[in-house]
Amino acid sequence: MRDILPDLRARCSDGVPFALATVVAVHGSAPRDPGAVLAVDAAGAVVGSVSGGCVEGDVYEVAREVLAGAGPRVVSYGISDDEAFGVGLTCGGTIEILVRAYATAAERGDLAAVLDLIAADLPVAEATVLSGAAETGARLVVRPALASGRPDSHDIPGTPGTFGTLGSEGLDAAVSDDARGLLAQGHTGIQWYGAHGQRRMQEVAVFVRTYAPPPRMLVFGAIDHAAATARIGSFLGYRVTVCDARPAFATRERFPTADEVVRAWPHAYLESTEVDARTVICVLTHDPKFDVPLLAAALRTPAAYIGVMGSRRTHRDRLARLRAAGVDEAHLARLASPVGLDLGARTPEETAVSIAAEIIQHRWGGTGRPLGELSGAIHHPGGPTGTR
Questions:
Q1: Phi and psi of 23, rounded to 5°?
Q2: Helix pair angle (348-364, 224-235), 10° resolution
Q3: pLDDT tens track for 296-342
Q4: What is the pLDDT of residues 253-265, one digit of tens each?
Q5: pTM, two decimal places
Q6: Which contiguous run of DSSP H or E holds residue 243?
Q7: Which are the contacts of 147, defined by CB distance < 8 A and separation ≥ 6?
Q8: Which of these, 18, 213, 284, 312, is most buried using a 10 Å CB contact count?
């Protein structure tokens, strides 16, 4: 959705009717994950992608039918289907796609409220009925709750904690609870319920799409490798912060792609900023007076990845200093050090690629080996493998 956010917001504000196709399930190997979208407007213009080109032509025709009044539809394409093979899905998997229209001003207004939240990097979940004992295409938008249990709605005027309905009060309540849980984890997927929200029943399939703020990448050490790492972090969709205590190095001019550049002692900044289970930390200073207090603080956080630059000798010395500072072996095992995968990298840009590759490998549980040496599915089906 973020990839085509400006286009969708423009269509909503300009009053242009359009149909939106969303990948809601993937089985086996497929080019795009659940949540990928493609929009077709009344003039036939297309933005986005649901399969990297494999089935777009057929989805386009379905979107035109839905936009003409055919009603929301869930379509499936798989390698075993003659029709799907004919339209080009040859990767071996199956994808399910929800196609629904935003033809009226009210429908576009409801979507625009969600798009505004996404554009503001505020968390929101959208639940849509796919099939079963509820109306296909029925939609419920859910905001996270505050610590008090009240919906967090103060930051976008006019946007309540939930709006829309899936058809029954019980179903809305159950889906709202689950959607907030999925939003906290950053997960998207299909949930099953009874017609009135009963658990452990299979009467209604609901697709819950979560939009969490971009994950953070914290880069410590304002060196040339940091500039390259910040660039690739931004490319991968992270909100990048570069931090260094030296004013001459921590400048906006040296890190134009970073979202923020902070001049502070690294450990002091880390202890004062938000770190969650999606945050990645890259320590590139390789200076003990910065590294030891910084890593001691980093290992107390739930960060998904903590990578540290330095030679193997530097790594051994760093471990000894951290042990002397009271860090135990279980915490030390979380360190990715020396940072990055073995790609033979030499330049700062190549090193940044090796760091990014290790972050991706850790996130999705990849092996780091050439795909040509492996068999089985190319795309790993699971989510993040945990914290490191």
A1: -70, 120
A2: 40
A3: 999 999 999 999 998 999 999 999 999 999 999 999 999 999 999 99
A4: 999 999 999 999 9
A5: 0.69
A6: strand 239-244
A7: none
A8: 284
